[in-house]
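Example 3.
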Amino acid sequence: MQQIAEKIGRLFPEELRPKWERAIRLGGRLQEIRLRAGQPAMLYLEDGEWFLEKTGDLTREIGRADRPGREELSAILKNICRYSFYAYEEEMGRGYVTAAGGFRIGLAGEVVTGPDGAIRNIRYVSSLNIRIAREVKGAALGVLPWLYRGQRLYNTLIVSPPGCGKTTLLRDLIRLVSDGSPLAAGQTVGVVDERSEIAGCFQGVPAKDVGMRTDVLDGCPKAQGMMMLLRSMAPRVIAVDELGSLEDIHALEQVIGCGCSVLATLHASSYEEALQKPFLESLLREKAFGRFLILPGKGGRFGVGRVIDEEGAVLGENL
Amino acid sequence: MNWSYLGACLLLVGSAGAGMCVCQERKQRLYQLSLFAGVFEQIAVEMGYSRISLPEIFLELSEKMDGGPDGKLGETLGRIGRRMEDGRGQGVEKLWQEEIGAYLEDVRIPKPQREKILIFPRAVWYPDGQRQQAAVLAFSEEMEQAVQDARRRRREEDRVTMALGVAAGCLLAILLL
């Protein structure tokens, strides 16, 4: 807790730390900090939304909330980017930056496009969404027995709405598969971490524990990254977050065709909704995923609601 | 009588030496200006090509300059880099003012260039790598221009200084004799 609080503290410049001190001390209890220029500073904890007062206290009363201006947002972003925006040009063009500690900071503001219409950057940043990446070691232990057939890992798809712990569960699964567990020896895992959320790489080095046999391609598009890993690192398992396009699925088919196991996540509010995703159709028809881990929606406890096999049979519940 | 000649000679040597000191100081000033021109150029190159962050650039420059004649400036840049990375959240503007400000106290650099050097962190805010590189290169070019101007003036100024030194020595020697 102390360690994560320290990492959160480093996001703020010296002059703003007294105001943020109480919030920083919440450490891992913090899920998100949302700052919008001229709007109340919002903090999301397990028990919901809070506002930050000018004194640094937390309140539920919107009238007492501090409203940071654009200068304050700019000071925080400068500190996060180590006063080197140019070094984060590509990431900013994708709408986020990754800070030391593995936190992803989403950005919104005026978008700058190039002559080809491609997004080049965001200037006049007016919103920051600081996502405090959780690391729950052991979160996947309960489901692990369902995921192995002998020493081989089933192709597994983790399904949940946003913010319910998909990435946290995926990260722990990667760690357990990589380090090994009483169920299976450790295997080489390749991770394509397009948005730096799984391993929280900072300057290429994972800030989160993703296991000793894990190779991470950070900030790389999923489809290209999967092919790169196949060619270069010979992984036994490939893990990706948030499947979302046909291109991802084509790459996934090649990965599976090469005999690798796959760990992936998908945004969907339920198993039934996941089955309706058009881009998943071919993989579902071929019963490529041997296991589906369905997470409960927001408000539910962190964990796996249901484990479902390729035939749709429920193997386990509330794990 | 002999002592008077000796005194006159010493006066001449002394005044010529004083003139040389002034010339040497001018040379040092020129060296410091070209040192900063080089540092800004290096910073711009790293920003444009390797895209590493400012504290990393400072640390890398510090390593390169370590043990060389520019060691003191290297040490100063290294201290800024380390302080930027120590997690206390101190801004580059404050650190630059403190560290480079203290460095400039000990070296002789003309006021306009000194002020320009001190405002360098204000030029580091562009999200676009190329723009950022160009902005820092402008600092290097300005320093380089000051070096060229000073170099052009230096020969003439040195000649005048030496001539004045020797002339003053001669005058004093004549008065003494």
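Chain A has a mean pLDDT of 91. Chain A has two domains: 2-131, 144-317.
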